[in-house]
Amino acid sequence: MKLKGDQNSATLFELRPDHFLIDAKFQGYKLSLETLPVYVVPIECQIDHAAPTDDQYSLQHVKLAALNNHIFPDPWNPSSVYIVDHNWIIYKIGATQEKAGQLSKIWTIPANGSKQPGRFNITMIFPDDGHAVIADGCGTIYILETNSRNSEADTNWKVVFHQELFASKKNFQFIILDSILYQEGTTHMDILLLRIDERAEWKEFLEFHQDKYLSSSEHPFVSVLEWITLAQDESKVWSLESKRCLVGRSGVDYATIEPNGTALYLASDDPYYFAYDSKNPVQLSNAIEAGGDSTSESDKSDYVWFQNGTQIRLWFRLPEESKKFDFTIDISANDIHIEYKKQVMLSGKLFDSVKPDESNWTLESGKLEVSITKSLPDAWKELIPGNTVGEEIHDPELVEQIHSQLAHMCSDKWVRTLLLSFYSQQDFHCNHS
């Protein structure tokens, strides 16, 4: 899912290959027999690890734990990684093509006496080459100026912001999923956090969303994405500027913030809902499913179509009681025209020529299927050049799933298929502010 600008701009994108970018002469990959360098660095200290408690038994907790890595890479300095020991001391390990470096002590995370059972693992991320963001797993976040991490003397880390973000909540622990730094008038930093709450904490919100995703009583926990924005003033002081919050039933498989801070991309089994936005207050009457029926008119698809080397197949969703005599369908060598009860559903010049005598159509339980035989075995970029209301799919089995999802929407009039509202576990979701 991808959300832009406000809560009503969720869009679900389908990720699919472009056949015209495929190299037909590609001979395959060759396996390199060169050995990869492997370095072993002895570590005398014990790596910090937070074990789940008996109360942290849900699938959400398992997925959250699976997102953790005790080795923190630095994308701005690929030759270095960081670890945290059981005393919360951060160490740096550098490496070159020839050898691995020594363990260097960098900074100690303030413990604040908060290493209680139930805490999450420490997470650390680097939004640029001069800052680090750290969550201690106990509810406190730290932003540090690190100066240049490429130098050997990478020890001058300085705290420029720290705060207990959710101290008033029962489940205040969180981990960091992503962080970016960007310019929007002043310097801004967006940080994406994940925590897990009990359903009871969201009683009113869940009662409003009476659907199979959030209202199921068999799921005692919900996942909460906290998206915070900090701004730096002229005195280089950081302050919290805004907070946004999304709630979902399933765990998070992947989430990242767009580099300019305008959108959040999210992959999950189930949809997420906006619950809070400090800049654009969320009204329950307007709260929508991220990736749900929020698409604009231009995002709606009238039909879906599939192609292989010899054939084009089109599908339309119509009322179940539709009869064959309701249709007028004309297919010529270069044109197609389809009407339903004198309403034009599709008409225009085809991308390439077809064989009308080998084309046909069927109607079954409100699903119209039109089969067209190509004259040449070439891939089509479009069905009708300039026609944007159709959606090409690459798996015809998806048609049955889509139609079953939308069957309840049919009336005595032709129904436009809302492809961008369809969810499956294979979908890649994207979301934002």
Mean pLDDT: 79
Strand order of the largest sheet: 11-12-13-14-17
Largest sheet, strands/sense/barrel: 5 strands, antiparallel
Number of strands: 25
Count of helices?
3
Runs in which pLDDT lies below 50 for 5 or more consecutive residues are: 285-300, 405-433
Q: What is the share of helical residues?
A: under 10%
What is the rounded distance between the termini? 12 Å
β-strand amount: 35-45%
Walkthrough of the structure:
Helix content is 6%, strand content 39%. The chain is mainly beta and 433 residues long. The strands form six sheets. A five-stranded antiparallel sheet has the order 11-12-13-14-17. The longest helix has 10 residues, at 397-406. The chain is elongated and about 75 Å long.
Which descriptors would you attach to this protein?
five-stranded antiparallel sheet; disordered C terminus; elongated; 3 helices; 433 residues; mainly beta; five-stranded mixed sheet; 25 strands
